[in-house]
Amino acid sequence: MAVVVSIANQKGGVGKTTLTLNLGHALANRGKRVLLIDVDPQFNLTFGLVSLDVLKYENSNVGTLLTKESEVTETIIEVKENLHLIPSHLNLSQKEIEIINSYNRERRLEKALKPILPDYDYVLIDNPPSMGIFLVNSLTTSDYVLIPLELSYFGVIGMQLMFNLMRMIKEETNEQLSLLGIVPNKFTRQTKVPKTRLKELKETYPNAPLLTTIPQSVALEKAQSQGLSIFEFDGDGRAAKAFLKLANEVINLVERR
Ligand SMILES: Nc1ncnc2c1ncn2[C@@H]1O[C@H](COP(=O)(O)OP(=O)(O)OP(=O)(O)O)[C@@H](O)[C@H]1O
Ligand SMILES: [Mg+2]
Fold first, then answer.
1. Per-residue pLDDT tens over the stretch 24-79
2. Letter string b/e over residues 33-49, b meaning 16 or more CB atoms within 10 A of that residue's CB
3. pTM, whole model, 2 decimals?
4. For the chain, what is the domain count?
5. Which protein residues are within 6 Å of ligand 1, measured from CB?
6. Which residue's CA is the nearest one to ligand 1's atom 29?
7. How far is CA 53 from CA 24, 74, 77, 133, in A?
8. pLDDT value at residue 78
9. 150 alpha carbon, closest ligand
10. Which residue range or ranges hold the AAA domain (predicted)?
11. Distance (Å, rounded) from C-alpha 46 to C-alpha 188?
12. pLDDT in tens, 171-222
């Protein structure tokens, strides 16, 4: 039965999509059966994985799934062995209003995924940088939240918003939700700022598990722009090693429970 993990942070550009894509590849490379879901109307994850094919899925994507126009099995694309995707689409933002006005709107994704959870080990959901109905659906159906964080001043302060949202979801729709951990991203030693922020983060949220730090890496950016995972682009580099370490850490945390 799949463990469902939301990759979430309401702050934009912190690495949610990068983390979803590369952690997904890392888990699949370790032989885990992985389903990625893109619930972001910006469809960056989908574009990263299938490029212009994103246009082909107008009638079978996460939006048509949430409005019940599609069956879940129709929406799944095989990216490679062990790595599947439910894509987003250009028209997802238009669907938002329809979903907001529909019955049981917070549980649409949970209900849609139920039949296929036994087919996977991990479901990773990439979320938009906003607190709308997509993020609520995603957190309602998740066992865990993984929060990528940029170690800037606003990044650390913004964590409180995520924790507030998680508390609300736990009270209202998903008592089981728990924090898998925070993943500090774009770490660099070129300035003292990230190190100072990391220390502040530990002091402010002593109970939040801090997972493997991902270094600032040009290779990651280049890989993304070419539609490749870091393992395909620069498999021996620092970023690939960090993602592999993170994948092992996630497996240990999730599977020992
Ligand atoms: N560790 C890193 N080193 C260098 N560049 C990175 C790193 N992580 C992410 N990036 C780059 O930062 C940009 C934003 O990353 P990404 O798209 O993953 O963030 P996001 O949180 O998904 O953004 P959004 O909130 O818009 O969905 C991308 O260009 C990505 O390639
Ligand atoms: Mg993104």
1. 999 999 999 999 999 999 999 999 999 999 999 999 999 999 999 999 999 999 99
2. bbbbbbbbbbbbbbbbb
3. 0.97
4. 1
5. 12-18, 40, 42, 44, 129, 185-186, 214, 216-217, 220-221, 224
6. 221
7. 20, 16, 11, 26
8. 97
9. 1
10. 4-178
11. 28
12. 999 999 999 999 999 988 888 888 888 888 889 899 999 999 999 999 999 9
Judged against a pLDDT cut of 80, whether residue 114 lies above it is answered with: yes
Q: What average pLDDT does this structure show over 93-114?
A: 95
Q: Tokens 């107008």 map to which residue?
A: 58
CATH of the domain at 81: 3.40.50.300
Best residue for ligand 1 mutational test, from 190, 224, 233, 241 (most atoms within 8 Å of Cβ): 224
Could you tell me the distance, in angstroms and rounded to a whole number, from the CA of residue 210 to the centre of ligand 1? 19
Q: By the 8 A CB rule, do 164 and 43 touch? A: no
Question: What is the token pair recorded at 7?
Answer: 């990759």
For position 153, what pLDDT does the model report? 67
Closest residue CA from atom 11 of ligand 1:
221
Residue 230 belongs to domain spanning: 3-255
